[in-house]
Amino acid sequence: MIEIRAIVTDIEGTTSSISFVRDVLFPYARKRLPAFVETHGDKPELQHWLHEAAREAGLVEAPRQDIIELLLQWIDQDRKSTALKALQGMIWQEGYAAGDYRAHLYPEVAARLRDWRADGLRLYVYSSGSVPAQKLFFRYSEAGDLTPLFAGYFDTETGPKRETESYRRIADAIDEQPRHLLFLSDIVEELDAAKAAGFHTGWLIREQQPMPDAARHPVYADFDAITLSS
Ligand SMILES: CSCCC(=O)C(=O)COP(=O)(O)O
Ligand SMILES: [Mg+2]
Predict the structure, then answer these.
(1) How far is CA 95 from CA 37, 90, 197, in A?
(2) Rounded to two decimals, what is the model's pTM?
(3) Rounded CA separation 97/95 (Å)
(4) Which SUPFAM superfamilies match (predicted)?
(5) Considering every ligand atom, which ligand is closest to the CA of 131?
(6) Is 21 close to ligand 1, i.e. is its CB under 6 Å away?
(7) Which CATH superfamily is domain 6-16+103-225 in?
(8) Domain ranges of the chain
């Protein structure tokens, strides 16, 4: 008998479309990053993440303009850099607050998250986006402010999403045995890592992709198809 007590969900490709992140959020950050650094460059938080990006690239002594150029390249590559994601989150905050966009959610997601909460399940997010960016995402979602539904958030400061140890850390932080946790994602390597840590897994395959034949994980076309017991 499977007993799921908490659900940990990915964002891009799972609760929300890849295109919203790639075609709205990333270009928004890319266009504004140079001016944002110019305007806010004296702020300790921004200086910290610029230094972290430089350290990550081995360019600690480089001029600030070189770091900016590097960050723009990383945005184009969708490099899962913790420093980049933190900087992007700082820029995205302005866009949400200004009403420039609302975070995309697939149509069934908000209702299903509410159902799971009403059934006593705890909900968490694990995304490459920074924790502040995740909170903004669900605070300013197309379905309104969903942050009251979530008990916690994890990003790559917990660890890389394709490493099993990251999921062990998440289970410890949630204070649940992995066998009582379900991880939902669109990326099979992330699901493999979670499964190796003992999590139950759900593979969201949304954008009319061919269903894999011998799926390594239970495959779902949307959140309404997800079953929590068997
Ligand atoms: C929190 S919105 C920005 C998401 C992001 O930058 C990203 O790379 C999403 O990757 P995920 O791990 O959620 O698929
Ligand atoms: Mg994803």
Answers:
(1) 16, 10, 37
(2) 0.93
(3) 5
(4) HAD-like (SSF56784)
(5) 1
(6) yes
(7) HAD superfamily/HAD-like (3.40.50.1000)
(8) 6-16+103-225, 20-98
Please name which ligand lies nearest the alpha carbon of 14.
Answer: 2
Pick the CATH number of 20-98 from 1.20.1090.10, 1.10.720.60, 1.20.1250.20, 1.20.120.450: 1.10.720.60
Give 28-67 pLDDT, tens digit per residue: 999 999 999 999 989 999 999 999 999 999 998 889 999 9
Q: What ipTM was reported for this prediction?
A: 0.95
CB of 92 within 8 A of CB of 28?
A: yes
Measured from the Cα of 186, ligand 1's closest atom is: 14
Q: How far is CA 114 from CA 108, 119, 145, 147, in A?
A: 10, 9, 12, 11
Q: Is 105 in the pocket of ligand 1 (CB under 6 A)?
A: no
Kindly write down the DSSP assignment for every residue of 89-126, as one continuous string. HHHHHHHHHHTS--B---TTHHHHHHHHHHTT-EEEEE
Q: Distance between CA 188 and CA 192 in Å, rounded?
A: 6
